[in-house]
Amino acid sequence: MSGTPLTVTPILVRQDNYIWMLPTLPRAMAAVDPGEADPVIAFLVERGMQLSHILITHHHTDHIGGVEVLRQRYPGCIVVGSAADVHRLPTLDQAVIDGDTVGIGDLRVQVIATPGHTLGHVVYHVADAIFTGDTLFSCGCGRLFEGSAAQMWHSLQRLMALSETCRIFPGHEYTLLNLGFLLELEPENQAILAWLELAQGLIRQGKPTLPVSLAHEKKINPFLRCHLPAMAQKVGLPDQPAEVVFARLREMRNRM
Q1: pLDDT tens string 240-251
Q2: 206: domain range?
Q3: Is 98 a catalytic residue?
Q4: Would 97 be classed as within a structural domain?
Q5: Buried b (16+ CB within 10 A) or exposed e, 221-254
């Protein structure tokens, strides 16, 4: 992993969707999960930049809705997405699988398969950044629309194995929403209370609560602590395996 932090800029669309923009060449950028095209075009035009790559984490419309328009506007753009989902993604120039490394400009992008939210979901690890789509949020994780609890727990474990200094760039601004659940689960947790105060301040200023470090999430995100006895106790499943604890926790979150 490069010692220089990757420069990443958010574009907020659809109230809580993030399109993440990162530089790939001196006058070009990549877009991660462009759910809309016009905000990306305006962003690039304002900066005199071209679009070199689009990275897609999964097939949901709010993550791919702008791809075809962007491809027409920037015909040299390379669209990258999961080989497992070629049948329900826009046409891919590069279909990737778990463990692939993709070159985008001077950057090397590691592909990590993270089934759970969808079966074909992938995450992109670039320098110190992890573009997690709808697999991992601050204080939460994605709903299980297609995969099992065991699959999602395994996917989260793979992300937890990365460097704790990595910054997480999820696909949505769900931090305050997720914190409401955390406060019901652990009202006495001082780290959660501190993050709530800080996150509320950022939102009041019109700023994103993201990115957050993986180390930060390991401390407060209950979905990353299902292997700990204290979390098993919290959900009433002492001595149960982590994936069972995860399944209960996800069910509890779904009901909120």
Answers
A1: 999 999 999 999
A2: 9-255
A3: no
A4: yes
A5: bbbbbbeeeebbebbebeebebbbbbbbbbebbe
